[in-house]
Amino acid sequence: xxxxxxxxxxxxxxxxxxxxxxxxxxxxxxxxxxxxxxxxxxxxxxxxxxxxxxxxxxxxxxxxxxxxxxxxxxxxxxxxxxxxxxxxxxxxxxxxxxxxxxxxxxxxxxxxxxxxxxxxxxxxxxxxxxxxxxxxxxxxxxxxxxxxxxxxxxxxxxxxxxxxxxxxxxxxxxxxxxxxxxxxxxxxxxxxxxxxxxxxxxxxxxxxxxxxxxxxxxxxxxxxxxxxxxxxxxxxxxxxxxxxxxxxxxxxxxxxxxxxxxxxxxxxxxxxxxxxxxxxxxxxxxxxxxxxxxxxxxxxxxxxxxxxxxxxxxxxxxxxxxxxxxxxxxxxxxxxxxxxxxxxxxxxxxxxxxxxxxxxxxxxxxxxxxxxxxxxxxxxxxxxxxxxxxxxxxxxxxxxxxxxxxxxxxxxxxxxxxxxxxxxxxxxxxxxxxxxxxxxxxxxxxxxxxxxxxxxxxxxxxxxxxxxxxxxxxxxxxxxxxxxxxxxxxxxxxxxxxxxxxxxxxxxxxxxxxxxxxxxxxxxxxxxxxxxxxxxxxxxxxxxxxxxxxxxxxxxxxxxxx
Length: 562
Hints:
Blueprint: E1 9-16, H1 24-40, E2 45-47, H2 65-81, E3 88-97, E4 100-109, E5 112-118, E6 143-145, E7 148-151, H3 162-169, E8 174-179, H4 187-202, E9 206-210, E10 212-215, E11 218-221, E12 225-227, E13 233-236, E14 243-252, E15 255-259, H5 270-289, E16 294-297, H6 302-315, E17 320-324, H7 332-345, E18 348-351, H8 355-369, H9 376-397, E19 400-401, H10 407-412, H11 433-445, H12 461-465, H13 485-497, H14 502-507, H15 512-524, H16 526-529
Parallel strand pairs: 1-2, 2-3, 7-8, 8-9, 16-17, 16-19, 17-18
Antiparallel strand pairs: 1-14, 3-4, 4-5, 6-7, 9-12, 10-11, 12-13, 14-15
Binding site for deamido-NAD(+): 380, 409, 528
Pfam families: CN_hydrolase, NAD_synthase
Keywords: ATP-binding, Ligase, NAD, Nucleotide-binding
């Protein structure tokens, strides 16, 4: 039972919670648990993120009438709970009104649905496609919550002035913005700048509540915060973890202000935030998909070592199985490094030589291949044998295969379709090779507080320091086929992230032939990427949801060439 307060005080609980798309009963149960905790802390109001009852983003699932009806039943059940006199509720769901489907927030109090507000500004860029499924709502007025006129702009509604201006002009006293804002590097500063602009324009304090958790390729980092009307930080919730923040707000001289809100320390490096995003994305993908654990090939190289560390930090060593799949080109150095990495992480480690599989495939092909010289075909047979064996282990024992290709490789097609690209999820899909090296060094000196893996170094220094190699032929090095990764990644940053023209990259000092070759490889590999496993998004433009290029594409940027 909430305490009786004066009209000049309001205790607000903010549920930075982790829903699961489509698990309406589970999301309702989660909401009830958070509300009970808020009631125990005498909150007047509890707020949940955008579309919480459905899970976000529901994509085309939200178009099913049965899904819409199930969300509405859950809302009515939660509304009935509020007859207990406990906290009012603001919660997001898909809501049908006058035959139109909206992205909405409902106010529940005293056992009933009291008000609904619809999202006005539907994003339709990058990972967002809301105009496909939702109708925009009218400009909203505030909702009265325990005598306070609360404006509820939903996520994108605060990215421009119009909705907040309307709420301020119609008597809003306090802004609460429920969000489903996915993570990418630098996103926290962007959000803060947007929120600050709305506070300056409206003169109203603003609470920014964000979802947390992984959903397919997206990771929601939470990191909710509030700003007082004078732009001072009212509170800061932690990132990448569920959290219930309860804050007292008081009105003095006609203005609402927070009273002693908690301030969580942010990650002090962007790479730390990226690492935590990869851990959370993998953890939730495995958990929400129902896999008992994961299995991955541990080659002794840097990519698989980082994926193994991420998997152990996400799931615990007892749910991670690593397999060395050697062939005659596998060096003793790689065998030693993989074994040392597995020992440091404490995982089950198996040795499964692939020679019988490779030689069997080559024998089967011999009548057709005849005396043709060996080439990349035989190299790919090795990779595909490894992929086949890992998938067989997954089928037999149940764990999901983690695939381990980085963004540099995925960009230029330095990966084998149906081979090392096999798998259910890729935690490093959006990390360039140079960042993979950085995150390995980072994890050896730092462990996230919520990680389930061990303290201290978790991979041998030699894994990070030795020249990368696919080890598919004698003395092979990645730089035999690719530019040095420092050069390759800088060119890809321009071509992929920034859409920089070839001519501009050449003008910046890159070799014209190298830039043209990288651009060509980038386009040619589109068909591979279209068949690749999903993976955690950490950059503004990941492959898949953000960057949508045709598979058949003969355009090449002349870059000033004739």
